[in-house]
Amino acid sequence: MSNLRRFGLFWWGFIVGDNLPLALGAGAEIGLAAWLVHLGLNPWWFLPAAILALLAGTVLAEARSARGRRESRSESERPPMAGEESGATIRP
């Protein structure tokens, strides 16, 4: 693998990670903040509020997705509880 490819993959993993929509949203928010500064405004409040909203949106979307995956799993597919895999019983 060439050094240039490894360098590009490092930055892709560092900036994007495993959440492309979050990375694109953050980039768009930074661009919008720069545009507001260019217009002569002082949007010091915009970037923190926008990042918090974006983060909350991605967390809620992941929670909904995980709940859907959990509800679609049948009882036979559920992971074993503590002590079930070895057949041991829990005694008081």
Name the descriptors.
0% strand; mainly alpha; flat; 92 residues
How would you characterize this protein structure?
With 92 residues, this protein is an all-alpha fold. The protein has a domain at 18-74. Helix content is 64%, strand content 0%. α2 (20-38) runs antiparallel to α3.
How would you summarize this macromolecular structure in one to three sentences?
The chain has helices at 3-15, 20-38, 46-72. The chain has 92 residues and is mostly helical.
- Taking the alpha carbons of the first and last residues, their distance comes to 58 Å
**What general outline do the C-alpha atoms trace?**
flat
Let me know the number of strands.
Answer: 0
Radius of gyration: 22 Å
Set down the secondary structure blueprint.
Blueprint: H1 3-15, H2 20-38, H3 46-72
Helix pairs in contact: 2-3
